[in-house]
Known about the structure:
The chain is mainly α. The chain contains 27 helices and no strands.
Amino acid sequence: xxxxLLSLRSMVKSPLNILILVVVSxxxxxxxxWPNITLLLQVxxxxxxxxxDVFSKxxxxxxxxxxxxxxxxxxxxxxxxxxIVGIFIVLVTRYFDIKGSRILFVGFATPLLYGxxxxxxxxNLIYGPNGFxxxxxxxxxxxxxxxxxxGMLAVVLVMTFxxxxxxxxxxxxxxxxxDFQTIEAAKQLGASTWSILRSIVIPVLKPMIFAITILxxxxxxxxxxxxxxxxxxxxxxxxxxxxxxxxxxxxRDLAATLAMFLGIATLLLLAVxxxxxxxxxxxxxxxxxxxxxxQQIENPLANAIVHVLAxxxxxxxxxxxxxxxxxxxxxxxxxxSGSISFSDLTLSNYARILTDRAxxxxxxxxxxxxxxASLIVVAAMLFVARIVxxxxxxxxxxxxxxxxxxxxxxxxxxxxxxxxxxxQPQPLVLGRVLSGTVVIxxxxxxxxKIPFTLRMLKASFSGIPANVEEAASILGASxxxxxxxxxxxxxxxxxxxxxxxxxxxxxDNYEAAVFLSHPFHQPLGIFIFNATSTDTLNDTxxxxxxxxxxxxxxxxxxxxxxxxxxxxxARKRRWxxxxxxxx
Length: 583
């Protein structure tokens, strides 16, 4: 009997496994597969008959075609700029011996504390037409164009400086794998700092560079908030165009077609980059690696240039969060004047958040949506990840592939599919209309976080030794008892960390919320965008700085719980090992 059939029979022996597979299969069909099929039918069968007229309609739309071109240009440019800046800040904080590297790292890590619409709105309120620094500069240069921070340059700058978080989180670990003995051997052979960097360091980093490049390209291709807020009329990309076309029934077919093009481009890109990545060979040349020590830049001129560039970038990174914190204690008139005095400082913005229901409601709505979605997706994927990891057969393999659809297709395409599908009664949900209700956004949030949660939990289950389960089985424990009393406690810390990261990333979500949110219960991302998209500053705009500070505080706590405590525990383990070795 084949191993596939044995695994399948073993899996279906448990009624709980069957129940989980049925529920998850229903969710996949209803909210992952059917909405995308409906989206395609909306494009090619608008009147119940097959038609491809939408392509001629799309190609004749100058705005639509320009947005397609702009999206690919943005994705290509970001793939270069984000990698250049990201690799540089990792090298100056983790590889080269730069003065004040710890302070530099803290500054470069600020985009991890806030992102999405919050970050873009913050940049707009600082550098935009009515931004503080723009108003300040106009006092000295009256002829200055107030819209200087608009268009492609503004979008690229903001997305570059906000997109280097992956380098700090993931490439830092790759730097730690570099063998110090290899570098010392190269030095003794007369290799220069640049030769060592090019021939030894970069090859070790290539796998991570490929992975981050894929994420960066996909992020640029489906970018929404930065082009929407900063792009202006001259630089709009696919996602803002999808949003614009989806707002009217007559142009929803164009929105669906653009979303389909975005999905096809994403699939082709993943296939090409994965093939390129598999074609390379990346390895460390030492079998017994020695911990890396920071390297001195021997050339005095090069050392001075690197220091200047590092600290100049640090100023660019820390200026927005510092000003945001300052602005949260001021009023809109002081920000608009470009001059803030001590008398302008006040706690009224924070008091309003605590006392005004209209001001606190978006924050509470975001917390409720984020908490519910994070808990549901983690709780569900705990069971699914366990089944997928333990039973490898045709059913689980296909289920795993289907649950990764939100990673393969762009978020705008999934959100638009949900909006169009459930704007009319559907038998799969008992004939109900979900669009315009509070339920549809929660479903969108859950769908968005399924792939990441499943992948991380599956890896966590895979790290548990098989003999743990074998011992429990010998003692007569059932599968559910083994899962509940042995496996679950082991993966619970990882599950809690994943839930915290999901919660943190959903708080200021705009891409899904703009399509699916309830008109009377809108989350924080919608509120912030509406407050900062106007041409004038007002008290509502000033509240966005308070929201941003609160989100930064929440993000700081989450990052500490997820990364800080684990790093602290790792340092303790290394200290105990050193003490034991001395004894």
